[in-house]
Design brief:
By secondary structure, the protein is of the alpha/beta class. It contains seven helices and ten strands.
């Protein structure tokens, strides 16, 4: 049964209309995502939370055009997504940096693939500006093996943002970082996406992360995923990611989200 998000913004960048997904697993049909209705507004930051295997990553892949829905459709700016959606940038759990390329060369690769008519000098200028933006000036000639985990994530973020995607899809990008590094990355992410007015769909298992970053948090049931609840995180922007979790309102929203999620967590399984 489809679940409609009645509180969604009027000006939608992304619309899932009865979008569901089934897979063939060893000759048996597996439903990963029940047909859902969800609208995401232009410039909105939406976090998706739920048990492992509930279809959160599947939603990102549908929006990116890496998968086609089994039922329903996905619209981007009012047009059905068919094939690769080149208006989105995708950042996964793994940084997927090319080990034989330096920081500069890893960030540069996105422009080399997309902007073939752009001069080398223009590309170098954009790469230098982006490296400075993510705080890696001085590390341009370093290889991924010479960087810390947080620095590698910053390179991956720079590479994703360098070609200025309208929408950023993020699949637990900071899950492997320690608590301190994660806070630094969350602060940097909110600043970069706010300044560029990027639409963000952010998959996470961390409720605190979702509340800190998102305008709305969408809670999914265990597989097959369906929308169980939608909550607004109405803290003013810019947000102080280092102090926000000490606010009474933060604790109240966290408890509300956990009440929706706790019964589903034990049902989730990795596939």
């Amino acid at each position: 049964m489809a679940t409609r998000d009645v509180a969604a913004p009027m000006q939608a960048k992304i619309v899932l209309q009865g979008a569901g997904k089934r897979f063939d697993a060893r000759g048996r049909e597996m439903r990963a995502l029940e047909p859902i209705d969800l609208e995401i507004g232009s410039g909105e930051f939406v976090a998706l939370v739920g048990p492992s295997g509930c279809g959160k990553s599947t939603i990102l892949n549908l929006i990116a055009g890496l998968l086609a829905p089994t039922e329903g459709r996905v619209l981007y700016d009012g047009t059905p997504v068919v094939g690769l959606n080149r208006s989105v940038g995708y950042m996964t759990q793994k940084d997927n940096l090319l080990p034989w390329r330096t920081v500069k060369a890893n960030v540069r690769v996105a422009l080399e693939l997309k902007c073939r008519s752009t001069t080398s000098g223009d590309i170098d200028a954009r790469v230098a500006a982006m490296i400075e933006t993510v705080g890696l000036t001085g590390f341009e000639a370093h290889f991924p093996s010479e960087l810390s985990g947080g620095m590698r994530k910053r390179v991956a973020l720079a590479r994703t943002l360098i070609y200025e995607p309208e929408t950023l899809l993020m699949d637990e990008p900071f899950g492997a970082l320690d608590a301190q590094l994660k806070l630094l990355m969350l602060d940097q992410l909110q600043r970069l996406t706010r300044d560029r007015r990027v639409t963000v769909i952010f998959v996470t298992h961390d409720l605190g992360e979702a509340i800190t970053l998102a305008d709305r948090v969408v809670v999914f049931s265990a597989r097959p995923g369906r929308i169980r609840a939608v909550r607004h995180s109405s803290f003013e922007r810019p947000r102080d990611v280092f102090k926000l979790r000490f606010a009474p309102e933060f604790a109240g929203l966290y408890e509300d989200l956990w009440d929706e999620l706790k019964d589903e967590v034990g049902k989730g399984t990795d596939v």
